Amino acid sequence: MTETTQPKERALIVGVNVNQDPYFQESIEELKNLAIACEIEPVAQITQNLSRPHAALYIGTGKLDEIKDFVDREEIDVLIFEDELSPSQLRNISKHLSTEILDRTRLILEIFASRAQTREAKAQVEIAKLRYALPRLRNTNQDFDRQRGGTGTRNRGSGETKLELNRRKIEIQISELEKELENIGRNRQVQRKRRADSGVPIIALVGYTNAGKSTLMNAMVTKYQQDENKLVFEKDMLFATLETSVRNIKFEDGRTILLSDTVGFINKLPHHLVKAFHSTLEEVREADLLLHVVDVSNPNHEKHLEVTNDTLAYIEADHVPQIRVYNKVDLAEGVPQLNGESSACVSAKKGQGIPQLIQVLTQQLFADYKKCKLLIPYDQGQVIAYLKDNATVLGISYDDTGTVIDVELSEADFERYGAYVIEAER
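The chain above was modelled as a monomer; its predicted structure follows.
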């Protein structure tokens, strides 16, 4: 018996180009890729140039009639709108069209829901979906409580008719999920405090989705850790990484960092998601340094860079120093001029430029480290063990009273072990 694959739903992409935005077409192409990630086939697009989206319908009434004719003629299953529709816009459009309607926000939420693996990520995405659904209950027959099943946009549920009951139900769900995230967040805070107390610098990878952050992490793990079990998941697709992964990287000179991979950003990232991923994004806010990965082979990488910086400002992480990492230079038409800025050019996939990046990183990160000589009593072996793991050991010798160790220390460790210092560079 031959298995038949369910045909993908056919989608019409709808967008409003506000004031001739030069990045509008790229945003439309990105929306198509988001649809494909949801296993929906974008078959056509209808766009309109306006000074601002129509307050009631998002698009003009004439364009709405054009869409209705196209949907009927081409047997379109779903409409996907470039921007997030307000509850009233969704309600008004639904009065004119019986076709299922998705907007950019809902599409991204669906992708996050399908990618989430850990309980924390699943809870974060579910909270974002419920917050998005709450003001829209009156406008749809969909049941937002239920996870999407199968492929495409089918099987989303039949919905409820008791509006107030549904609202209370969703509010209770959000409250319960937030309590669960608070417990997970407390454990994460303990882990962060433990890492901070270790004195090892924490570096967070940030950047636009699919810029190559996970690939860069794996390149550094492969070069300096050489443990395939520590590699993180990477794939050429939007939002391949949702969970934060932290890896210990020890360089050839003995210096050690903790490298953290984070969720990618995207233009018009739903604020529901940013709010729900608050605890995860604290990894970025509390980092010592950010590696801002930019896919320089993308012709709109300057826009991606701007979106990432705007998002960092939104989550209050714009105060953290950053190094700009221009990735995929092997695919780019030209190599960026660095002009002395804190930056490096790499091809993470091919392992090119990693030593140069590490040089820039160590120069910036360890600029305030102090070289000193410590005398550690023989009964304080745990101090020696700590310094071997968390400091740059330059030499070890022994005398009658203890171990003499030449090290390069962070300011925090210098203060912590100041009682053992017998000589220090000024």
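DSSP finds 13 helices and 14 strands in the chain.
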